[in-house]
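Quiz preparation item.
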């Protein structure tokens, strides 16, 4: 009998090569992305080239009897994806012909398999054996899947991959990114479903990784992917849900709507996914998914543009402009008001505004958002931060954070900010646990991982903090916080020279940001190089003449320089201005000043443990 080796299982047609066993499709040697089920369907059609393959034949070959999907829609979607991969026009097909009310037929010539040297089978017989082997391989694979997975495992975790912009206009990338974010937000309303955060999935934009690999990296059981096409006021959205282990197509659909109706589409996708995976949806969650209102198209576009910008110092003012424009166009659009509140909070954190200027603006926008939609988490988090950072109402802030987590227990931002409060009020072990919960929601989120490292550091668990910090530097070498986390540990473990090297790098990558200058100036002082420390201090004082620099930043440098009286003066200034950043007060850098009676009195007046 002819030995059907790996090379003979490869199906060749035109410039393509298909290997059903490995699941690979290549064009001129380059890989072409297709999902596992789509590869199996293409192999089935090619193996029966020239024959009509009915939809029922396809159903039996690709799905077991325990799978519950809309087979017609799923088959249509798979065929469409194959045609995209092959660049095949259904009106003038070169590869796959649609047979109305029957099925499909593969019409391209198949290259004869190359026989092994010494093979005695005649070409026609060899080809029949080869096609039979392909069909048997497909059937065996389906049988093995059925044996290994006698019933579909309930899907309780999901990642929404960045939607692909098919508008052929890079300027429309913001639209696809915003739609991705909104889909994540909608699906996250389902409490029983763990949905990976936006910052964790955005690195997968444009990736060529297989979906099972992405699912493993994100630790999820299913992946939702799709495309967005924008043409003036019309939007076309396609979405498909893929189970990861085993890889299987669960659902697909497409929508074409006016721009102002896209929110309804997002809710429709969320409801369809929930129905398909048979996840428990509470009456309240169902109400949230059914409460979509239309939005002014221009307001929604401005909102997505603001959402797309990275929150750098330069971009915050631009983002605020877009979100304010959205609120002006549609005063009832709650997410725009929620984002306005967040931008003001970030401007205060960056020192672009004082807390005194920012707090009333944050509160006003957050309250407006909550009044319009009491199911949004972000405005509740913003109200908690006003209570924490400006009013020093620690109990009230904790109640707001718990309320936010009650709305959505999987909201990463709520867990991260609650972790900061717990650290500030002297509950470091709880702070670490809360930071770890935030990272569980988004395991590939840089900021969540940074929070874990920083909370370990604040809890004086230096070994654990040190183990986390290098991963941050490797992950994002252009961001300063990995260097700061590592340097902070070095400083507390008598490795001052290494700490200074890391902080010099942090200052470099941040373009001499005021956070980074604070840490460097303090470290120079405690390491004995007070001349260089004074230069950094002078630079910060010069910045304070041109923009707002939180007084506690300067106080920290003075403390490092050994100028205790000046440090206390600047801490008092921070107290009077209602500043005092939450991540600074519990810092071990300040352990030496904690015994100072004047500092203890300041902490007492703030209502914090002394």
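Solution:
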């Amino acid at each position: 009998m002819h030995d059907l080796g790996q090379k003979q299982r490869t199906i060749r047609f035109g410039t393509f090569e298909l290997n059903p066993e490995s699941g690979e499709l290549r064009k001129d040697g380059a890989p072409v992305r297709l999902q596992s089920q789509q590869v199996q369907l293409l192999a089935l059609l090619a193996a029966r080239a020239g024959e009509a393959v009915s939809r029922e034949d396809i159903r039996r070959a690709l799905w077991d009897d325990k799978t519950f999907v809309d087979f017609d829609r799923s088959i249509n979607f798979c065929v469409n994806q194959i045609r995209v991969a092959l660049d095949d026009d259904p009106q003038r097909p070169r590869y796959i012909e649609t047979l109305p009310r029957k099925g499909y037929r593969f019409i391209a010539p198949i290259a004869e398999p190359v026989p092994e040297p010494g093979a005695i089978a005649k070409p026609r017989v060899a080809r029949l054996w080869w096609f039979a082997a392909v069909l048997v391989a497909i059937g065996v694979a389906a049988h093995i899947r059925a044996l290994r997975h006698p019933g579909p495992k309930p899907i309780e975790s999901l990642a929404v991959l960045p939607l692909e912009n098919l508008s052929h206009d890079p300027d429309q990338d913001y639209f696809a990114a915003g739609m991705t974010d909104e889909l994540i937000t909608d699906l996250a309303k389902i409490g029983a479903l763990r949905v990976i955060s936006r910052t964790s999935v955005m690195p997968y934009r444009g990736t060529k990784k297989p979906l099972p690999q992405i699912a493993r990296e994100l630790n999820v059981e299913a992946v939702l992917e799709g495309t967005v096409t924008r043409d003036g006021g019309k939007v076309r959205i396609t979405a498909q849900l893929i189970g990861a282990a085993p890889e299987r197509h669960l659902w697909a659909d497409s929508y074409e709507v006016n721009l102002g109706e896209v929110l309804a589409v997002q809710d429709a996708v969320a409801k369809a996914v929930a129905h398909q995976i048979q996840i428990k949806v509470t009456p309240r969650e169902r109400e949230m998914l059914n409460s979509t209102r239309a939005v002014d198209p221009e307001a929604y576009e401005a909102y997505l543009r603001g959402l797309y910008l990275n929150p750098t110092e330069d971009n915050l003012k631009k983002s605020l402009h877009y979100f304010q424009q959205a609120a002006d166009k549609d005063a009832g659009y709650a997410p725009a008001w929620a984002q306005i509140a967040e931008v003001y909070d970030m401007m205060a954190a960056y020192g672009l505004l004082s807390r005194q200027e920012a707090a009333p603006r944050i509160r006003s926008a957050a309250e407006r958002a909550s009044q319009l939609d009491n199911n949004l988490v972000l405005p509740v988090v913003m109200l908690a931060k006003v209570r924490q950072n400006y009013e020093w109402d620690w109990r009230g802030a904790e109640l707001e954070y718990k309320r936010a987590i009650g709305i959505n227990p999987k909201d990463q931002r709520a867990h991260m900010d609650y972790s900061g409060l717990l650290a500030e009020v002297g509950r470091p072990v709880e702070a670490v646990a809360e930071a770890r919960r935030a990272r569980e929601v988004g395991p590939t989120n840089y900021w969540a991982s940074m929070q874990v490292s920083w909370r370990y550091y604040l809890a004086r668990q230096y070994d654990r903090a040190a183990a986390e910090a290098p991963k941050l530097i490797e992950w994002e070498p252009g961001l300063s916080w990995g260097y700061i986390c590592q340097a902070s540990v070095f400083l507390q473990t008598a490795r001052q020279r290494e700490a200074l090297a890391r902080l010099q790098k942090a200052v470099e990558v941040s373009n001499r940001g005021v956070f980074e200058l604070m840490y460097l100036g303090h470290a120079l002082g405690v390491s004995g190089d007070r001349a260089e420390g004074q230069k950094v201090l002078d630079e910060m004082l010069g910045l304070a003449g041109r923009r707002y620099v939180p007084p506690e930043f300067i106080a920290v440098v003075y403390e490092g320089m050994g100028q205790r009286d000046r440090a206390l003066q600047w801490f008092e200034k921070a107290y009077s201005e209602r500043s005092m950043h939450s991540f600074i007060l519990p810092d071990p850098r300040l352990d030496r000043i904690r015994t100072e009676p004047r500092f203890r009195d300041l902490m007492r007046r703030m209502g914090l443990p002394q």
